[in-house]
Each structure stands twice: as C-alpha cells, then as structure tokens.
What does this fold into?
Amino acid sequence: MQITVNVNGTEHARVIEPRLLLIHFIRDELGLTGSHWGCDTSNCGACVVWLDETPVKSCTVLAAMADGRNVMTVEGLGSDRGLDVVQQAFARCHGLQCGFCTPGMMLTARWLLDHHPDPSDAEIREALSGQICRCTGYENIVRSVRWAAEQQAVNNHGQQP
Amino acid sequence: MQVPAYVEYEKATSVQHALTLLARFGPEARILAGGHSLIPMMKLRLAQPETLIDINALTDLRYIKATGGELRIGAMTRHADLLSSALAGQHFAILHDAERVIADPIVRLWGTVGGSLCQADPSEDLSAAFAALKATMVIASLDGTRTVSARQFHVGPFETVVEPGEILTEIRIAIEPGGGSAYEKVGRRVGDWPVGAAGAAVWLDGAGDLRAGGSKAGDSKAGDSKAGDSIREARIGLTAVGAEHFSAAAAEEFLRGAPASEESYARAGQIAAEHCNPVSDQRGPAEYKRHLACELTVRALRRAVARAAAGPGGVT
It folds into this structure.
C-alpha cells in the first residue's frame, strides 16, 4: 500500500507492507535514526515520536496508521534557530549517559511542558514513568526537565521564575 | 526483531463503513483501535488476522457524556481521556483509580477503552471496573445495535460476545446518586498488568435518598456516615484472579444489608477470595493472588464506603 506521512515538516510517500511498524518506517525507510528501536514491546519508550499532537511508542503503531498524519521525531525537535530548550537542558544538566533513551525522553518532556509548563518533580516522574533509562540516570533526567521548564518560563516572560 | 505477520489493511471512515468492511472481509478480519494490545499480540503470533480494519478515524466514537441518567463512554475514548474526564471521575471515582494504574502515560494516550475491553485479557483492569459498575455494552452490527451486560461480555480469556461483523461502540453506566467507588491494584512495576486487582461500588442505606432530597453536597463531610450505617448495595469487580464474570457475586450478596464495617469488608474479602480461581504464573503464585483478591476487595470496599459517606466532592 502507498502511504504519505509528513515527518518533521516534509512529506514522504512510500509503498510499504501494511505490517511495517512506524519505528522501522522512520529508521529504515527514511533514514532518520534518531528514534531508537528498543524493547519492541512498548515498555521502554526509546521509540517515542509524536503522531500528530500526541507522543506514541512507535514500535506499537503501524506505519499505515500514520498515513496522512504528521510525525515529529527528535530530528524535528530543534529548528534553524537552534536546539529546543529541552535539548539544551539535557546537554546542560547531563540528562544522558549512553543516550539511547534520550530521544524518547526529550519528546515526552516536550509534550509535558507544552501541557504543564511548571510541573512538579512528581509530575515529571509520572510523565516519564513509561520510559526506561538503562543507565539509571533518572535524577539528571528529572533535573533536565525541571531546568527546561524554568528556562522556558524565562524565555517566554523575560523574567526569573 | 518482532514484526507482525503479513496482513491486509483497510481504513474505515465511519461505523457503517467499518461494519461493511467487516462483512466483506469475514471472520479473519480484526478491528484495529489503539493497537496497543493487538499489535503486541500480532508480533507474538498470538493473533494473526488476515485483515486489519483501522477505526482510528472514527472520532465520533470518542466521547464521555452524561445522557439519560447514564454515563456514556464511546469505544474510541483513549485511556488518557477517561483519566482526565472530570465528569467520569465525579460519578465514578473507580474509573480514575483504575486508569491511573493502566499501562503508562504514553500508552494511555493511544490505547482505547473499547480496544482494551475487546482484547479481553483475563487481567484487564477495565473489565473489573466495568463489572463492578454493572455497565452495559452497546454492540453495533449492520442489523442494528444490541446491549449486553458487562458481566456477560466475556466468554473466556481473550474472547467476548462481540461476533464477527460486530463492533463495540459504547459503554453505559447508570448514574445512581449516593454511591462511592474505588479500585485497588497490585502490580510488579509501572505499566504492568495486575498481579491482582479489585474494584468496588457501594451505596449506603439512606445516603442517596438524603442527597437526592436536596441536602447540599458541599455540606457533607468525610465521616458523615455514623458507625453502623448499612450497605444497601455493593458491587465488586475482580481481575487477574480467575473470578467468574470479573465479579464476586457471593460477596455482593453477603454485603447487601450488612453494616458498613471492617468486619463486613473482611468477610466479603474472604468470600470473594474463596470464589476465585487464580493460576500461578510469572506474576506470582496462586495463593498470593488469592490473598490479594481478599485484601484488595477489603481496601476497595473501605475506600468506596468512605467516598459514598463523603458524598460528591468529599474525600478521595
């Protein structure tokens, strides 16, 4: 079947088998290897991308289900003006060690901050609870998201939080 | 690498269209809602449909509303929708309790209420929650719609009364004032199926009449119920412990008219556990699950009664 998916603002038309998973479409068909293929059982969250306005574990979605929709991967998180504040935060606060879980963590963090600009630590941990960091670097990940929230408030309002 | 077997794919644009596609492709076609149960099953070859009929475009099945004295939940309602619905939580706190511990926040954004019910996993949380609420399932076919009680919905593990050519479209729960409900689950980790879980919905004698009679809900306080209040009606749902119809009919019968007391909860928990048939598996030994059936029934009853006594806007 033929599908057309808008990934990070660019339309991609491909002929695929209906059983193709979205994560493999993104990585193997489009060559966008920022999204990581991890547990394959929707537990680890390394494969999280946005499907329209919602994060999703792309190992558990068919590429066919993304036909006519918008996908955002980690490659689409930043812009020509620079890194997204969440990416800046992970770099600044050492929010990654091996980096395997990082793309998924950042895409979920972006969604969290879009909906809850000032989350508590408990809310950050809850939001990320479906994602696994095998380096167990959770403290710094939570710290990164909190820094991103504070920095975003500064950027948006020009004042210290 | 886990990949589903070869499958055909069709995208439905309406309930009618989905039903037409089901009729055309026959009994080896499966409805694809959120896919978060079905796709993992397909990867493991536990499900091997010939055709998937994707109903994610059926946004008219995504709603939560109160109509005609019932809470009505569209089958394509995402778990996250139910968890964030103030309307659902106001009438049935059990639904929020259960949704909070179903899968994880990302999976809840995509997985659907109807899909979870139709997957009919013997450990499904919502099956117990809706059994506790004695919900009604609305099932559509090209011939019209029919309704089935939540307690008659499951035929066996991974099997429901939804026939080939039919779609679950809605879940209805009668709104009966004065009740309280709660859900208690023990799982090994975030996102996992329960080792055991219990839900309860109770109505205390007189409480509903009082509120319906015009007392201001805001005036009621936690602990309003005096020791010695009795239980007018109790409903108990159980999952992952081999309970018939995801419920505990004998314990419900015992509770009707019993005092709302720790002794009653303990006896009801014992009865519920005696009627379970748990199996030992990687989540725990059967005896532990039986223990959970008892203890979680007690906890769910205790919290449901506290909520019923507190009234709307009371303690959670």
User: Anything to note?
Assistant: Chain B has a mean pLDDT of 93. Chain B has three domains: 8-54, 60-174, 179-310. The domain at 8-54 of chain B is CATH 3.30.43.10 (Uridine Diphospho-n-acetylenolpyruvylglucosamine Reductase; domain 2). Chain B touches chain A through 29 residues (CB under 8 Å).
